From TrEMBL:
Residues 728-846 form the Beta galactosidase small chain/ domain. Its cofactor is Ca(2+). Residues 202-291 form the Glycoside hydrolase family 2 immunoglobulin-like beta-sandwich domain. Its EC number is 3.2.1.23. This is beta-galactosidase. GO terms for cellular component: beta-galactosidase complex. Residues 56-189 form the Glycosyl hydrolases family 2 sugar binding domain. It comes from Mucilaginibacter robiniae.
């Protein structure tokens, strides 16, 4: 039986509280809850804003805004650092008898922002300034060991230290207040181990620095390494200690350890024991991994001797109902989602995370860039020195941390740089985000074609810590394929990090629970506030799949071989599994039965960075199916991606669906400027002068699909229409004229009532946003669509990957990406259309494509923009469109055309106005209401 993480931790808490642990181990007693999902109520008084001026209670840990107190502030808010909001906390507690004669420390994992702490009316120590750092006070002398104790904390939301406000409070993110991480007591022996720093290298060399406190007598310090499940590894190693010793070095070597990496996160545990006169005084254990991080100048980043490229995202510590107060369950969810996108790295933006997040990165495998806070402003040197030490002591032993960052986008205090190496036993690399430093160029948001100085054409290792800035539906996945292929093939590229992992939509307790992203400041993520998956999620998953499949067309001559590239660093593809599937999909009317068959695929032995073949064991009748799927699964049984290919082409599907013959005859009546046509109970009205469809009606009533086809970015110069019968089929067509009416339209009405539209056209310019035709349909009458093609997510020209071929259905929604989160969005472009059944408030109608690579467009999302006008949602006119080229989408920092070739406009070179050189769009319509 599996238990929730908080229950496991609660058990530990109870054991520590009542002393049911070995006396020589550090005892821990929580005064708060262990996370946002398990809190403890404290007395609370807020001095300003909502619910201020009265004593009440508040859960700890939490941010007080999310509990209905104070004022919400986004970092750009001009008054965000002027407010005098304070939270006054009180909590009474008793200490267990087992704490007697122990050193008792009061630990705060994180408080926003300044906090003055008293125990039984006396100051515990100096006011702590800085939000994201664990700190502690020795309160042994302040405690009443046999009675009640009163803890008081006065928390100021904004700091009295201007440099702390500059580094933390003026950033591009929500600003909260409160005790937002756990609070607990630690009870240690009088002589004890105060800190441990470990370093396990890939060659098996292990070293540790053990910091001791209050050593009164000579003794012995020993260590033993264990597997994570408790099996001894190697021999114990030790050193003598003398009175007053403060730091001891221990070293050992383990033969052929299992190495830690993002692909194989092998962990060990080391236990240190302080002894005197044969008696154990104190025992402390730490998890660690054997791995080596090396930066080779003008070359790259090496993990365990292998050159790696980071595929990463920037993650804020955030949950919409609790702000920065989180729990281990959220950390597990986030790491799993990040890895599900085939990422191998995460940057802590822009401050150190909860310890449980780093624990999960250690155990599940993510490379972490841990960051000292700073956002255009930085800490002064005394404050920064203290906070850097707190970050280092708290985080130093996590094997997932492979780099440190000294501030973001100008928030670098250069005087602190030497301290990172001085205090880090592992000597991990140090970078400055958005600056050329330490042999890295980490500049943010450079255009794809940027080639000035070091970036892509210089000598430094290029590793942008932010390179595509998500905004609503732009960025993140849009443009990624172009950037990544360039990065993958550039020897000086060490990869990069997308901005950002999640939309910061916070629940506004002052606005009836509305989710607020502060306009365009917060909706930057690839997942929503509650981790809803946007379309870019799946694009990233495909683009960053370590199994890379070369483009391959499936024709009748297909030999069942797909060409692979292994983009892993430590995994042979024979450690992965592959499965194949063939599917025959249903038709719009449910007459064709869905059928599928699976087949085996042997995993090929392809080493990292090498190429090879995947041989599909296709059944003999594979050509009778519509789609082919191949799924790759990693060694830990997680899906890397499922790729799909068309076997059946749209033309074949159209031939099966479109019924032409019928014993009924077609009638046509000309009245004024209109053709009035009746075929098998379907009535059509077409304008004689323009060829535009004006009205559609059947026995059930009017279908309000009309006012088309209207060419988009092309001249709507259809002229000189004539009508004639070709057998029983009625043909209405315009005349071609090279100068005045070079675009032509032909309608064919079959006796069955099916209607064929063929448009031959020339785009309006060499470069166009989109090519195709539009129709009108009242949005309020649309209920749903069901279609055969790529789905279920919409696409953009620079975000075509991440979908799969199949039959999809989705109900109408008015989702605005990043502001509402009912995904997938209904509105937008959809790729590889075979057919689409439009389900309306009255009756359905069906449209069938004849040509490959046909898009259908559903309505227009609400206009969105940013202050630089980069995002630019560009859609055609009309309501429903059938297109052969679509627009790209920009990001918050780049217009679409600067994100790479896929983001550029569509090109049509041939301007000889001859019919045979025109683009041809052929569609079929079923207005029978079936």
């Amino acid at each position: 039986m599996k238990f929730p993480a908080y229950k496991i931790w609660l058990s530990i808490l109870l054991l520590a509280t009542f002393g049911f642990v070995h006396a020589q181990e550090t005892q821990k007693m929580y005064l708060s809850g262990i996370g946002s999902d398990h809190t403890v109520n404290w007395q609370f008084y807020c001095t300003a804003g909502q619910n201020s001026g009265k004593w009440t209670t508040i859960p700890v840990p939490s941010n007080w805004e999310l509990q209905g107190f104070g004022k919400y502030n986004y970092g750009f808010n001009k008054d965000s650092v002027k407010g005098k909001e304070q939270g006054l906390y009180k909590y009474k507690f008793k200490v267990p008898a087992s704490f007697k004669n122990k050193v008792v420390q009061l630990v705060f994992e994180g408080v926003m922002t300044d906090v003055e702490v008293k125990v039984n009316g006396k100051l515990a120590g100096p006011i702590h300034q800085g939000s994201y750092y664990a700190f502690k006070y020795d309160i042994t002398s302040l405690l009443n060991p046999s009675g009640s104790n009163l803890l008081e904390a006065t928390v100021s939301k904004h700091s009295a230290n201007t440099s702390v406000n500059a580094a933390e409070r003026k950033g591009d993110f929500w600003i909260f207040g409160g005790i937002f991480r756990p609070v607990y007591l630690e009870a240690l022996p009088q002589q004890h181990i105060a800190r441990i720093a470990v370093d396990g290298q890939a060659n098996g060399n292990f070293q540790a620095q053990i910091y001791l406190k209050n050593i009164q007598d000579a003794g012995f310090l020993s260590a033993q390494i264990y597997t994570i499940d408790g099996q001894k590894v190697g021999s114990a190693f030790s050193a003598n200690i003398n009175k007053a010793d403060t730091v001891i070095q221990l070293q050992s070597t383990l033969s052929a350890p299992k190495l830690w990496s993002s692909e194989f996160p092998n962990l060990y545990k080391v236990e240190f024991t302080l002894s005197q006169n044969g008696k154990t005084i104190h025992t402390v254990s730490k998890r660690f991994g054997f791995r080596t991080i090396e930066v080779r100048s003008r070359d790259g980043v090496y993990v365990n001797g292998v050159k790696v490229k980071f595929k990463g995202t920037n993650r804020h510590s955030f949950w919409p109902t609790s702000g920065r107060a989180l729990n281990k369950g959220v950390s597990i969810m986030d790491v799993n989602l990040i890895k599900e996108m085939n990422m191998n790295a995460v940057r802590m933006s822009h401050y150190p995370p909860d310890d449980h997040f780093l624990d999960v990165c250690d155990s599940l495998g993510l490379y972490v860039l841990d960051e000292l806070a700073g956002w255009h402003g930085h800490y002064d040197t005394p404050t920064g020195t203290r906070l850097l030490k707190e970050m280092m002591v708290h985080d130093e032993n996590h094997p997932s941390i492979v780099m440190w960052i000294n501030g973001n986008e100008g928030g670098h205090n250069y005087e602190l740089d030497p301290l990172f190496r001085k205090w880090d036993l592992q000597h991990r690399p140090l970078i400055h985000a958005w600056e050329a430093y330490g042999g890295f160029d980490t500049q943010h948001y450079r255009d794809y074609n940027y080639g000035i100085g070091n970036y892509m054409h210089g000598h430094d290792i290029v590793m942008p810590t932010e390179f595509l800035h998500g905004l609503y539906d732009g960025g993140n996945g849009a443009g990624l394929e172009d950037y990544w292929e360039a990065m993958w093939n550039d020897p000086l590229s060490a990869g990069g990090f997308l901005w950002a992992y999640l939309d910061e939509g916070v629940v506004r307790t002052d606005k009836n629970g509305a989710l607020d992203t502060d306009k365009d400041h917060g909706p930057d993520g690839v997942v929503g506030p509650y981790r809803e998956k946007e379309g870019s999620f799946f694009t990233i998953k495909e683009v960053w799949s370590p199994v890379h499949i070369e483009h391959r067309e499936i024709t009748s001559a297909f030999d069942g071989v797909l060409h692979l590239e292994n983009r892993y660093y430590f995994t042979n593809l024979n450690q992965c599994t592959f499965k194949g599937k063939l599917t025959k999909v249903t038709d719009p009317y449910g007459k064709v039965t869905h059928a599928e068959t699976s087949f085996s695929i042997a995993s090929p032995a392809i080493r990292p960075f090498e190429k090879g073949d995947l041989k599909l064991n296709l059944p003999a009748d594979w050509k009778n199916y519509d789609f082919l799927y191949v799924t790759a699964t990693d060694p830990h049984n997680h899906e890397l991606f499922t790729w799909s290919w068309p076997i059946t082409k749209p033309e074949k599907v159209a031939r099966k669906l479109v019924v032409q013959a019928n014993p009924n005859t077609i009638t046509i009546h000309e009245a004024d400027s209109l053709y009035n046509i009746t075929a098998n109970g379907i009535k059509l009205t077409i304008n004689k002068n323009t060829g535009i469809l004006r009205r559609v009606e059947n026995a059930k009533g009017v279908i309000p699909f009309n006012n088309g086809p209207v060419l988009q970015e092309g001249a709507n110069n259809f002229k000189n229409f004539t009508q004639k019968f070709e057998g029983k089929n009625l043909v209405i067509e315009s005349a071609f004229d090279k100068k005045n009416s070079y675009n032509t339209l032909q309608w064919t009405i079959y006796p069955s009532g099916w209607v064929k539209m063929e448009v031959r056209y020339f785009p309006g310019d060499y470069l166009t946003n989109f090519d195709g035709v539009n129709f009108s349909f009242p949005e309020k009458q649309m209920k749903a669509v069901q279609w055969m093609g790529s789905g279920p997510y919409r696409v953009w020209k620079n975000r075509m990957k991440g979908t799969q071929l199949g039959v999809w259905k989705k109900d109408y929604n008015n989702t605005e990406t990043g502001e509402s989160w009912n995904y997938p969005e209904f509105k937008g472009y959809h790729a590889n259309m075979y057919w689409c059944r439009f389900i309306t408030q009255t009756q359905p109608f069906t449209v069938v494509a004849q040509d490959e690579d046909t898009f259908f467009r559903l309505f227009t999302p609400a206009f969105k923009d940013d202050q630089w006008h980069n995002y630019q949602l560009i859609f055609p006119s009309g309501d429903i469109s059938f297109m052969q080229a679509i627009s790209a989408i920009g990001t918050k920092t780049q217009r679409a055309e600067t994100t790479g070739p896929m983001g550029m406009k569509n090109i049509f070179y041939d301007y000889e106005k001859e019919p045979k050189r025109a683009k041809i769009l052929t569609m079929f319509f079923d207005f029978s209401g079936r």
